[in-house]
């Protein structure tokens, strides 16, 4: 069936300007047929009134908690939440129970994800067996099964020689190594930024633990030629090191989260674990450096690090609650409202960092609106402001630090290969 979307605004990726155009796609074959005016007959017409029609969003860092932690999230709730946030594709981290360290587990997630029929899920598998930091997993078998990258996210690989071997083998297998950069001999059992920790009376987490590990892994990536991708960059020193590595020609890319672009440790004025995340919210200099790094492309992409936890777990307070914040349903409205609308970040930079760039880095489909490309589309309304209410989330996780913030830029429809995977107001999957 031929579908036409008319009355929307598209983004010209070369000049960054918005323009009016219609889009025709084939909802069975799943690709875009034409972009422009007078696109001819269609079996179905979606009429818009100036909404943005963007490529389907891509998030390279989410925690879907399935298998093993389904009280926090399930594949179904996580992939519906992703679609509601405008995401057509998400990459899920392997810190589940059991950890995703075998081909069978990768295949299981892909098969169950596909059956749910929401966002497409692309598993990232463990670097080390059981995420224990020691024996390496079978990279070739994991790749055959469909894994798109390797990571022990949640923990850093502490042993340098082991990481060197992992990068050499990842290079041979053609898989990116995605690092949670944390030198545990520095971070120890700290929980939040040292300044905030002093105010609250808990243990500080040394920010230098991040850059220390990034420095090591830059050197190992340079030696091996592996594609090193740095997760959730949060400090000024980390941004400087990545910028330096790129200038040297190291095969390195990086991501930044919405919370590290919008928040600092100063928001932590009382013991509320909703602000506890790893890496922690840092200082204003760090936040500013992340923003600069994002604008100049040192930090290539936006990733949410969507990390749902239960209300009970988060009620344990900053010292004892698990690290992590949800983010997949609010990332675009927050960054649109607080960075794009005030003129800090161009819309084209934000959209590129959530679509074309992550697709390109990890070899995923989509990322552009052109005849022949997949009909992965996100339709966003920028003229309707809403208050963020976690009770409305499709995710099981309600642990957002942005409760009661007002934002515009909500997704009204998400399309994957020509099929609607989210329409505003739809029922929850359980
Ligand atoms: N970011 C977090 O604070 N938590 C993540 C782990 C991680 O991304 O390191 C989680 O799995 O909960
Ligand atoms: Zn991490
Ligand atoms: Zn993570």
UniProtKB/TrEMBL annotation:
GO terms for molecular function: allantoinase activity; dihydroorotase activity; zinc ion binding. Substrate binds at residues 63-65, 95, 278, 309, 323-324. One of its GO terms (cellular component) is cytoplasm. Binds 2 Zn(2+) ions per subunit. It catalyses: (S)-dihydroorotate + H2O = N-carbamoyl-L-aspartate + H(+). SUPFAM superfamilies: Composite domain of metallo-dependent hydrolases, Metallo-dependent hydrolases. Zn(2+) 2 binds at residues 153, 180, 232. Pathway: Pyrimidine metabolism; UMP biosynthesis via de novo pathway; (S)-dihydroorotate from bicarbonate: step 3/3. InterPro entries: DHOase, DHOase/Allantoinase_Hydrolase, DHOase_cat, Dihydroorotase_CS, Metal-dep_hydrolase_composite, Metal_Hydrolase. Pfam families: DHOase. Its EC number is 3.5.2.3. It comes from the Bacteria. CDD domains: DHOase_IIa. The active site is at residue 305. NCBIfam families: pyrC_multi. Catalyzes the reversible cyclization of carbamoyl aspartate to dihydroorotate. Belongs to the metallo-dependent hydrolases superfamily. DHOase family. Class I DHOase subfamily. This is Dihydroorotase. It comes from Alicyclobacillus acidoterrestris (strain ATCC 49025 / DSM 3922 / CIP 106132 / NCIMB 13137 / GD3B).
